[in-house]
Each structure stands twice: as structure tokens, then as C-alpha cells.
Automatic annotation (TrEMBL):
<keyword id="KW-0732">Signal</keyword>
<protein>
    <recommendedName>
        <fullName>Nickel uptake substrate-specific transmembrane region</fullName>
    </recommendedName>
</protein>
<feature type="signal peptide">
    <location>
        <begin position="1"/>
        <end position="31"/>
    </location>
</feature>
């Protein structure tokens, strides 16, 4: 009788472990990303001249969608697979502030302060399916 109870416990524990593992694996699969995306080219100028150093940041407020890229020597950034939507856009110095370096060493006069903070920047971009081109001329 003791052997039957012990065998029953082992089988029950094995069945529970298999069920738990199966449910865990189903949950780990995640949902397929079905968000529609577009291709974005942004040109940034300052008083008509290309801005060749800077980081372009795009974010949909409250949605968690974002895109980031560095400007090239033509003042452009190309971003692929950007989720469609209305974005706030900021252009900031490419140097990251760190505890050891709280302020960038270079001044970047062609990147006025009002465009650096994504929550305050007046720049907007409405990304639609396909190719999107935006030009931002930063004014002092």
C-alpha cells in the first residue's frame, strides 16, 4: 500500500511539473509584433546650414514608442522600422551627460536649448506607412 501512495505522489509531482513547464513555455512565446512601421529621413539645419553633430530623438508621449539616431555630415538621420504615429522630436548634443561629465564639453551653438528637451521641443513628426521625410530648421 505504501508503494502505491509513493508512486502516486511521484506521478502527481511529475504531472504538475510538466503542466507548469508547458504553461510557462506558452507564456514565454509573447505576442507577435504587428505594429505598422515606416521609414523616416530627417534633415536638421540651423538657420539654413546643416547640423552635422547631434542626436535626433523621437517619442510618442505615453506610448513608449521611440526612435533615436545620430546626424551625419549632411545633417540627416535615417531611421528604419519606426512605429507609425505622432512623435515629439528633440535634437540634442551627441555627448551623453554622465555623473563624471554632467555637461557636454562642447557648446553646440547650432542646437538651441528649446529643441534639446523632448518634452518641451516644438518639433513634431507624423510618421505614416512608407517613406517619410521631415526637415527641421532650428532657429535661435
Amino acid at each position: 500500500m505504501m508503494v502505491k501512495i509513493d508512486l502516486f505522489r511521484r506521478c502527481s509531482m511529475l504531472a504538475f511539473a510538466i503542466l507548469f513547464f508547458s504553461l510557462t513555455m506558452i507564456g514565454c512565446g509573447g505576442a507577435e509584433d504587428t505594429k505598422k512601421r515606416g521609414y523616416v529621413t530627417i534633415t536638421v539645419t540651423h538657420n539654413g546650414s546643416p547640423v552635422t553633430e547631434g542626436e535626433v530623438r523621437m517619442m510618442i508621449t505615453g506610448k513608449g514608442e521611440a526612435a533615436v539616431g545620430l546626424l551625419n555630415e549632411s545633417g540627416q538621420v535615417e531611421l528604419a522600422e519606426v512605429v507609425l504615429g505622432n512623435y515629439n522630436v528633440a535634437v540634442a548634443p551627441p555627448e551623453l551627460a554622465t555623473p563624471d561629465n554632467p555637461a557636454p564639453e562642447k557648446e553646440y551653438p547650432n542646437l538651441p536649448q528649446k529643441y534639446r528637451d523632448i518634452s518641451k521641443s516644438p518639433l513634431k513628426a507624423d510618421v505614416k506607412a512608407g517613406s517619410n521625410e521631415f526637415t527641421f530648421d532650428l532657429k535661435d
